[in-house]
Amino acid sequence: MANADPLAAAVPPKTRKPQPDGMVEKRGAGLWLTHVLMILGILVIFFPIWLAFVASTVTQQDIIRPPMPIWPGDQFFTNYKNALFSGVNVPVATMLFNSLVMAVGIAVGKIVISLLSAFAIVYFRFPARTLFFWLIFLTLMLPVEVRIVPTYEVVAGFGMLNSYSGLIFPLIASATATFLFRQFFMTIPDELAEAARVDGARPMRFFIDIVVPMSRTNIAALFVILFIYGWNQYLWPLLITTDPEMNTIVMGLKQMFPSGDDFAHWPTILATSILAMIPPVIVVVSMQKLFIRGLVDSEK
Domain 92-296 falls in which CATH fold? Predict the structure, then answer.
């Protein structure tokens, strides 16, 4: 063995990296079965959306005369143009804009108020601090539907009916977001606050330069959830808006459905349904990575 490579003995044989306890590596049939089931689940969920899209690209006769086609037709631009700029009571473009303003306003308002309230509860020492936190948390037992009459009286008293402020302000308080931010702030090392205090940073400077950047994944996750919450609101906008120009897209969809012997142009209704799904999908897809990190990770 005189010709053996002297470095061969120094190189350890390649061994398989041991798997941590509880981690099972899927191989073979198990891996394929998992992917097949996942694809089937996606198809089951996506198929009704596909049918709605196909129905929004065909004529009224194609829908009411069975069987309905399963491939898109040639009326795409016509139906979507009618939905966006004609609609039934008000153009869908106006309702989409109203819903967008309401959803963004609610999401941003809830996050800003929750950040400030959680920061005050965690980093400031004042009497009955814990009591105030639990009073905020107990508001979870009082949803909008329970306090809707007094809330309406307050909004009407301030003259905020048929306005964006009336749509947004009564819904921006969030005990859930305050609780989540409080729990995250409690995991931030105290040494950061001490270092900021030694450097002469004021509380709001510490909040803006350190706390908020560290909370960006939590903010992203909450923004996605709160945006969809605001986008899907129906009861509150229905109560405080009497001007059709202030209708939201959810209200508009409900008003499009026929009652009694009314005529319904189904391609326009289904085109409106597809348009109503686009903004939430864009928000979820564009913030997917931050949303997942905000749910499963905390950047300490």
Answer: MetI-like fold (1.10.3720)
Alpha-carbon distance of 251 to 94, in angstroms, equals: 12
Reported as a single tens digit per residue, the pLDDT across 151-202 is 899 899 988 899 999 999 988 877 888 888 988 888 888 888 888 888 888 8
The residue whose two tokens read 């105030």 is 132
Provide the pLDDT for residue 6: 43
Q: What are the structural domain ranges in the chain?
A: 29-85, 92-296
Q: Give the global pTM.
A: 0.81
Q: Is the pLDDT of residue 59 over 80?
A: yes
226 within 8 A of 110, measured Cβ to Cβ: yes
CA distance 288 to 266: 33
Residue 230 corresponds to which tokens in the numbers above?
């605001």
- pLDDT exceeding 70 applies to what percent of the chain? 86
Side-chain half-sphere CA neighbours of 260 within 13 A: 2
Q: What is the pLDDT averaged over residues 32-57? A: 89
Task: Please give the Cα distance from 210 to 293 (Å, whole number).
Answer: 19
